[in-house]
Amino acid sequence: MRVAVVGAGLAGLGATYFLIKKGCSVTLFDELGVGGGASGIPIGLCHPYLGRSGKPSKFADEAMSVTRELIDVAESTSGKRLADRSGILRTDWNPTLWYPDLENVEGGILIKSGMTVLMREYVNALYASFSDVELVKRRISSEDELKEFDRIIFACGSGTGDLGFDLPLSFVKGQVLIGKFNKSLERTIMKARGHLSPFKDGRVQLGSTYEHHFSSSKPDQVVAIRDLQSKMDAFFLNQDEFVFEECFSGVRACVKEGYLPIVERMSEKAFVFTGLGSRGLLYHAYYGRHLADMVI
Ligand SMILES: Cc1cc2nc3c(=O)[nH]c(=O)nc-3n(C[C@H](O)[C@H](O)[C@H](O)COP(=O)(O)OP(=O)(O)OC[C@H]3O[C@@H](n4cnc5c(N)ncnc54)[C@H](O)[C@@H]3O)c2cc1C
Q: Is the pLDDT of residue 239 over 80?
């Protein structure tokens, strides 16, 4: 079966991985290339818990394990460590329920299964692990442009809004700052709804802002620094400890109600996979597998 996957972000690549496993011949289309959308943010956090309640997200154990499978594949292809699996420390959290995955440690609660993923490198390595998948750098506006394919998956992230589908989505811009930090950081710390993560070469990533009304999806470091001020204050005793270097932004497609992604059949041939919100890493592989099962 010939399948066109439009969008080479977490969703499109997650689906492609399982479609190939089922013997499909996949062609990827992306107007910008692999990781050209929100999945090109430098670092992403992956853990199974919801907001402040501490309840596990739905299907979290299985989703974490399928995500780990894909990270293993990407790491073995690239020969590099792409995920820090030493857990995530939450410093201002009182979960209402306790799970074996949580440990009270000095300074907070450790989510032992939590991972910090070099997202941009991960998507590139995952794509590199696919043999015989052609990537066509082209914008696709409707399924009519892909008549030669048996099935078409639209995994366009925030670009889904331009395809004319009637889906309950909203679009939120997020930004992260990369900079130097003069203290060593062992693992990601979550605090005050922000995170500080160790990056390569001793730098750190501080994120992220949530802008529901934005005029451009491009990085805007003035807004990012302004919005992240309270998070900086929560992490740094002294502002001089963080020396800003770069700003990255992206727009994520979020479902209006709840947090589970949308995986739907839109026509005889076309399917949509979007709305991963802030849980792209947790759900791209799990729902990518589900989608592949629906397609075949
Ligand atoms: C600042 C920020 C921080 C984040 N932090 C985290 C985090 O810590 N953990 C986490 O799990 N998630 C995080 N996310 C969310 C995560 O990035 C998204 O859930 C995920 O990347 C969405 O993947 P996607 O494949 O659906 O969309 P995208 O990555 O946006 O991919 C869509 C692709 O489709 C292409 N495209 C769009 N329209 C068309 C078209 N018409 N024709 C051809 N190509 C098209 C685009 O070029 C793009 O490459 C964050 C997002 C942001 C912005």
A: no
